[in-house]
Amino acid sequence: MNGILVVSATKAEAAHVPDRYDVLITGIGKVTAAVTVTAALARFPEDARPLVVNIGTAGALHGHHGGLYVPSTVINHDISSKVLRSLGHPVEDELSVAGGDGSVLATGDTFVSDAEVRDALAARADLVDMEGFAIAHAAAHMGAGVRLVKYVSDHADDTAMDWPKQIDAAARALAQWLEERY
Which residues, 6 or more positions from 100, have their beta carbon under 8 angstroms from its beta carbon? Predict the structure, then answer.
């Protein structure tokens, strides 16, 4: 349609995206996100792949974070990188994302709702989600550009359980960001 493929884990996060955008719903988690994005991008000619714009919610790893972020770095936080590297296996666990705001997003298959886990992640990142790294990795593998756009829905502690109540406001802010830029 417009050279943009809007990617979201859930329908609720993309609920307010206007019809003029192609929207891909991946489902929750790294594996389903990577497989779904790769399959979608494979349908495009190699020289005509769209910009992947991943919109979604994220938990804030620091109390002062709120609102909307466009991460410049995304890390795969739940892979045993140090151990695997010590065994001689290369591990790509950090990706740079062009056009970001300097924030760091940590992606893992764990829904972070525990303050202790959050605080450990906060030493490495600003935000946490469950799909960003996988989407960025799949896009890079397929030769497509990517932007990650995350709206803080909680503080990655017991407030994360209120995620369903926050989703509509997040979806509105994400759709507004998209419309203002593309």
Answer: 70, 71, 72, 73, 147, 148
**pLDDT tens digits, one per residue of 169-182:** 999 999 999 999 99
Return the SS3 of 161.
helix
Residue type present at position 175: A
What one-letter code names the amino acid at 46? E
Residue keyed to tokens 């990142």 = 125
Looking at residue 1, its pLDDT comes to: 57
Q: Note the pTM of the prediction, 2 decimals.
A: 0.93
Strand 104-107 and strand 4-8: the pairing is unpaired
Q: Which domains does the chain have, with CATH numbers?
A: 4-181 (3.40.50.1580)
**Residue 134 in tokens:** 């996988």
